[in-house]
Amino acid sequence: MIFLPESIERILERIEEAYKRDIKKRIAYSKKWNRYAGTDSAKVQLEFFEEFKSSLESGTSKLLVCEEGKEDEAKICLMNAVFKWFEPLVMEDIYRIRNDVYIQRGLKKRIEALSKKNKTKEEALCLLGFLNNAYASSWGQGDELYQIRDFRLVESEEEFETILKKYSDAEDLTASEGLVNFTTIRVALVPVDSMAIYQKKGIYEEYKRFGIEHLADQNIDDALKMFDLWHDVRETAIYYIYAPK
Questions:
Q1: What are phi and psi of 200, to 5 degrees?
Q2: Is residue 210 a contact partner of residue 227, using CB atoms and an 8 Å limit?
Q3: Mean pLDDT of the chain
Q4: Exposed, middle or buried: residue 191 (CB in 10 Å: 0-12, 13-18, 19+)?
Q5: How would you classify residue 38: left for phi > 0, otherwise alpha for psi between -120 and 50, otherwise beta?
Q6: DSSP code of residue 175
Q7: Model confidence at 190, in pLDDT bands (50, 70, 90)?
Q8: pLDDT > 90: percent of the chain
Q9: Which end of the chain has the least Cβ crowding within 10 Å, N or C?
C-alpha cells in the first residue's frame, strides 16, 4: 500500500478550490471533460472529484493498493490520476495549483510607492505587473519553468552587489535593456535547481539510486516526475529586489 504525500494533499485541496471558484463564476466545462453539459457541469465535476479525493484520504481507493515491490509503479499511476483532474481547468488555475509565490512583507508597498514617482513610475509598474501575476508569468525565458517564485527585499545597492558576488549563478535581470529601462530598481535572479534541493533535503543519494533503478524504464520521465512530486522538489527562482525608499 502507498500513502499520500503532503504535496498531493496540497494539490487535491487546490483542485477543489479551483472547481468551487468556477461554480461561483458559473463556468460550464466542456463536454469533452464531463458527460454533463450546461451550467451545472462544474458542480457535477466537483461532486465526482470529491468522491475521488475522499477515497484517497480515507485509504479506500484502489489506487493506493499495490503488490510489494510495485510501489513506484503505483505512485506513477496515482500521480497521473490526480493530474487528470486538471483537464477542464484553464491554465491560470493549473498554475495556481502547481506553483507558489512568496513576497516578503513590505516589498510590494515599497514598489507601489515608487510607482507614484515620475522617475520610477514605469519600472515600478512593470515590476508590480510581474509580482501580481507571478503564478503564471516569468521575467523571461530563463526563469519560466520555476514552480516557486520567492521575492525578497534588498535594502541597499551594496547588499545587492554582495548577492551578485556571493552566488555564482546570480543574474542581474535589470542590467540589460528591455521594454522598460530600469534606472533605479534592481532585480537579481538566483535559481535553486533540483540538484541543490535534493542536497538540501538530504535525498541526493536516494535520487541517484532511484535514477539508476529506473534508467531502462520506458516511462523514465514519469518516474522522475513522480520522485520530485513525492519529495516535493520544485525548482525555485529567488528574486532579490533593491527598491530604495
A1: -65, -35
A2: yes
A3: 93
A4: middle
A5: left
A6: S
A7: very high
A8: 86
A9: C
Average pLDDT over residues 190-209: 97
Model confidence, pTM? 0.91
Which strand ranges, in their side-by-side order, compose the sheet holding 236-242? Answer: 100-103, 148-154, 236-242, 186-192, 171-172
By residue count, the chain amounts to 245
Q: What are phi and psi of 78, to 5 degrees?
A: -65, -45
Counting beta carbons within 10 angstroms of the beta carbon of residue 146, is it exposed (0 to 12), middle (13 to 18) or buried (19 or more)?
A: buried
User: What's the gap between Cα 17 and its chain centre?
Assistant: 16
Quote the distance between the C-alpha of residue 67 and its chain's center.
Answer: 32
Give residue 32's pLDDT: 60
Nearest-CA neighbor of 230 among 1, 7, 3, 81? Answer: 7
C-alpha atoms less than 13 angstroms from C-alpha of 28 in its C-beta half-sphere: 8
Place of cell 535594502: 155
- H or E element: which one contains 149? strand 148-154
* Structural contact between residues 127 and 215, judged by C-beta atoms closer than 8 angstroms: no
